[in-house]
Amino acid sequence: MEFIYSDEIINNIKNNLVKTTKKNHYNGWSNRTNYGYHSFKIDNINFLGQRRPWIRLNKMKQYYNFDNKTLIDFGCNTGGMIFHLPELKRAIGLDYDKNCINSCNYMSSIINNNVNYTFITQDLNVFDFNTFAKNNNIEKVDVIFLLSIGSWVKEWKKLYEECVKYSNTIIFETNNDIEGKPQLELFKKLNCIITLISDNSEDDITNNFGRKTYLIKNK
């Protein structure tokens, strides 16, 4: 049965999402949609952003069961990948954009499910997993999302190596084949098993279909 959120809540979500579209990034990229990077389709919450999380997740679920799992999403943006997984036990989202995290925190305060949510503003170039794990009572993480962040995080190698230490399962998306090649080579060097989940990003309404998604398993 659909849960109906009030007009006030819907407007608050809308206003928070709109704020995430205002920033121009260092490489000239800016969001070209009204409501930001992620689309939302949860009960009567319905906003079209650049990408549609349910399409991406349907592909991932053919390779991984998210039921009752703990997830960390690095570069979570407005949390669309997290909020479309109500079966999770715990979800932590990190992003450097405080407007995105503010939107996530509001959404987590009203969303109608039982997931334990934490959202943190974080520059991933200065992220230390050991300190973060200690501060957040984490020993191991069931699954980590590294979705199209390699082009944005200069210290991606350090981050990816630490992720392999803290989780046996990573779902990894490249920004493109050129930048993705050394990142995949790193996972191979770390003796991970790499399985292709999707060879395109057809969920993107701007027709940027060049991203590929992989399941990375730590032996």
Describe what you observe in this structure.
With 219 residues, this protein is of the alpha/beta class. The protein has one domain (51-218): Rossmann fold. It has helices at 7-19, 53-60, 80-83, 98-110, 129-135, 156-166, 177-189; strands spanning 40-42, 45-47, 70-74, 90-95, 116-121, 143-147, 169-173, 192-198, 213-218. The strands form two sheets. Strands 5-4-3-6-7-9-8 form a seven-stranded mixed β-sheet, with helices on both faces. It has a two-stranded antiparallel sheet with strand order 1-2. A hairpin with a 2-residue loop joins β1 and β2. The chain is globular.
Blueprint (SSEs and pairs):
Layout: H1 7-19, E1 40-42, E2 45-47, H2 53-60, E3 70-74, H3 80-83, E4 90-95, H4 98-110, E5 116-121, H5 129-135, E6 143-147, H6 156-166, E7 169-173, H7 177-189, E8 192-198, E9 213-218
Helix pairs in contact: 1-4
